[in-house]
Structure of RNA polymerase II subunit A C-terminal domain phosphatase SSU72:
Amino acid sequence: MMKLRYAMVCSSNQNRSMEAHSLLKREGFEVSSYGTGSHVKLPGPSLREPNVYDFGTPYKQMFDDLRRKDPELYKRNGILPMLKRNSAVKLAPQRWQDNAADGYFDVVFTFEEKVFDMVIEDLHSRDHVLMKPVLVINLEVKDNHEEAAIGARLALVLCQEQLETTEFWEDSIDEIVVNFERQHRRKLLYSISFY
């Protein structure tokens, strides 16, 4: 049985994609994670003042920056623990649109419809040289720590129970999705694209 390569994608490669990346990595999956935004945005002291970083800025650097600015606030809202977790998983947030050099994935999970659309659009704009199918699944997850943890567990369940046990997911994806939706009462969006 060949091992599938997974990508977890949200907008900033901070919360939802990293929670899923961390969990799947611990479970032994071959997994990467990305964001699709133009910058990495983290909550700030108010909605109008987010903390904005470039993709590629190490999580540790963001952690040190926010700890310097207001350690109490960023500990209370869960940002510091999240950045600490992230830096244990990988060095820095990566942007999906710049990942062409990372090779291909068999399955890409997104956690927001807007991100799903951006991943599909990006895949469609690439040259399809390998003609290798990639399954893109959107599991809608609110961008907070509790929901991210639930979303990560659901992504893991989908990978363990369905995708890893099916020789050709292409033939049974409709059935996999219907079963998952019935079991977990969560709607999935999915699309098949090519590399």
Notes: Residues 42 and 48 are 11 Å apart (CA to CA). The radius of gyration is 17 Å. The chain has a mean pLDDT of 93. Residues 40-89 form one domain.
